[in-house]
Design goal:
The chain has about 500 residues and is mainly alpha-helical. The chain has helices spanning about 5-30, 35-60, 60-65, 70-95, 105-125, 145-150, 175-185, 190-195, 200-210, 215-235, 235-255, 265-280, 300-315, 330-335, 355-365, 375, 380-395, 400-415, 420-440, 450-480; strands at about 130-135, 140-145, 160-165, 370, 415-420. Helix 1 runs parallel beside helix 4, helix 7 crosses helix 11 and helix 10 packs across helix 12 (about 265-280). The longest helix is centred in the C-terminal third of the chain and has 31 residues, at about 450-480. It is globular and about 80 Å long.
Length: about 500
């Protein structure tokens, strides 16, 4: 039986291999339309990423043959190797300015519009936005007008909320969840107003103690947590998956233990997100039913993935974690615990538990998941279609409201209704983790170059299926006769 720590270490390896495949796909798409001079630059990048790929494949026979708990030396050696590979990828990403890469897919804009539509409807706030591909392997938000002018601008003077999306993740909808957090800064007026209230200003002075220069840290950390919770409210468990997956990859270059003046401890953030999800009782939505592993659901898996990476950094990579410059316990007690009260109320994800198994089955068959009928959702579609045809025949010779009412019911049941973005992305994460990653981990010893190409192809194909689903679902929502967007 494969040990849990070995299983998670293999997951880290697959994360590195996936990023190699994404970098290759990005460079190859650029090279196909490049000027000869640019094409030579692309080839130089491809050569280097090819070396990283070969090195990753070279350790597979050893890593894949060990099922028992790894000893300290072996675990540390494998972790350092995988971290070095990810560091190389992040480093190359920072130099993608040398390559003329494509812009972000149009589905990114559709994704954000669909996710924030319920929030805009309840708040009355509209935020025009731009998404810009970034050479930095980091998701960020800024007002582009202020950034370019190097000074603050008045919103009425043409402010331009702008999200920076790493080029490597531009085609990956499962990582767009992190964009939702960044977009949250454009909707953070409730937290900013809350922090300016007189009582809270007094609490902030208690939190910073004898270091009044750290008031800005409190304000920034509180807003970051608010945006985390808003993203959870809009995407559910899919945001936790996006956040942990991204931060574990980034840990190879940035570390995973320390806070900064702009962002709080990742471990603290994961804990707050996890508690919020537990209160919402969403574990039932994301059960891992197709594997015999110890993780009952997607939330528990990603929490333990993060904890494993944090533990490994302390033990093998020399990470100690810096002390916070403010009193985190006081911040948590005086401010953070009140933040859920500032969030929009109600279910903004529109996730239906009965839909997710059907959506996962469709993805397994490489079918887009933009719409689902009620009878499909309840597994009554074949019988319903048969009854519908019989009623259509009988209606020609019969009259009566009972027959017409039954016909209307059946027609409504087979009508395709759009899935929410949260449902699409969550089904994508469940499929990716349990149907793509887990089988590859269990069969890693046989992971040859050919299997590697097949795995990469499946991951990139999933990107395309999800992008198509997101755009089609959005169009179906707009065109739906249902006043609530066809979600009924």
């Amino acid at each position: 039986m494969l040990s849990a720590s070995n299983f998670l270490l293999r997951y880290f390896w697959l994360q590195a291999f996936e990023r190699v495949a994404r970098m290759e796909a990005l460079l190859e798409s650029s090279g196909s339309v490049a000027h000869p001079t640019d094409a030579r630059v692309v080839q130089a990048f491809l050569k280097q990423i090819g070396k990283t790929k070969e090195e990753l494949l070279e350790i597979v026979p050893v890593l894949g043959s060990i099922e028992a708990e790894l000893d300290d030396h072996a675990y540390g050696a494998f972790l350092k190797f995988v971290s070095a590979s990810l560091h190389n990828i992040v480093y190359m990403h920072q130099h993608l300015s040398f390559v003329n890469t494509r812009w972000t897919p149009q589905e990114t804009d559709v994704f954000l519009k669909a996710v924030f539509a319920p929030l805009e409807a309840t708040s009355g706030i509209r935020r025009p936005l731009s998404v810009v591909p970034s050479n930095s392997y980091m998701f960020e938000e800024t007002d582009l007008s202020s950034y370019l002018l190097q000074r603050d601008t008045n919103p009425g003077d043409g402010a331009t909320p702008t999200l920076f999306l790493p080029k490597l993740e531009a085609s990956n909808p499962l990582q767009w969840g992190t964009l939702v957090h960044e977009m949250g800064h454009a909707f953070s007026e409730p937290i900013r107003t809350f922090l300016k209230s007189r009582d809270v200003e007094k609490d902030i002075l208690v939190i910073v103690g004898q270091r009044p220069q750290n008031v800005g840290v409190v304000l920034r950390w509180a807003e970051e947590i608010f945006c985390d919770l808003l993203a959870v409210r809009l995407l559910g468990p899919a945001y936790l998956a996006s956040f942990v997956d991204f931060i574990v990859v980034l840990a190879a270059s940035e570390g995973i233990l320390s806070p900064s003046y702009t962002h709080p401890f990742p471990q603290w953030r994961v804990g707050i997100i996890s508690d919020h999800l537990k209160e919402a009782n969403v574990s039932r939505l994301v059960r891992l039913t197709r594997s015999q592993r110890q993780w009952p659901d997607l939330v528990r898996f990603f929490i333990e993935l993060f904890e494993e990476r944090s533990w490994a950094e302390r033990r093998y990579l020399g990470g100690t974690g810096e002390r916070a410059v403010i009193d985190v316990r006081e911040l948590d007690d005086r401010i953070i615990r009140h933040l859920p009260e500032l969030l929009p109320q109600g279910d903004l994800t529109a996730i239906k538990e009965t839909k997710l198994p059907l959506l996962r089955d469709r993805l397994l068959r490489r079918i887009p998941i933009a719409t689902v009928s009620i009878f499909e959702e309840t597994k009554n579609k074949p019988a319903a279609l048969q009854r519908l045809r019989a009623l259509q025949e009988s209606l020609r010779s019969a009259d009566g409201q009972d027959v017409e009412a039954e016909l209307a019911y059946l027609q409504e049941g087979v009508r395709e209704r759009p899935c929410s973005v949260a449902e699409i992305v969550l089904a994508g994460w469940l499929h990716k983790v349990e149907d793509l990653y887990f089988p590859a981990i269990m069969e890693l010893e046989a992971f040859t170059r050919k299997q590697g190409e097949e795995f990469a192809g499946q991951v990139l194909q999933l990107d395309g299926l999800l992008r198509t689903s997101i755009e089609s679902a959005y169009l179906a929502t707009i065109l739906s006769p249902d006043p609530e967007g066809g979600r009924g």
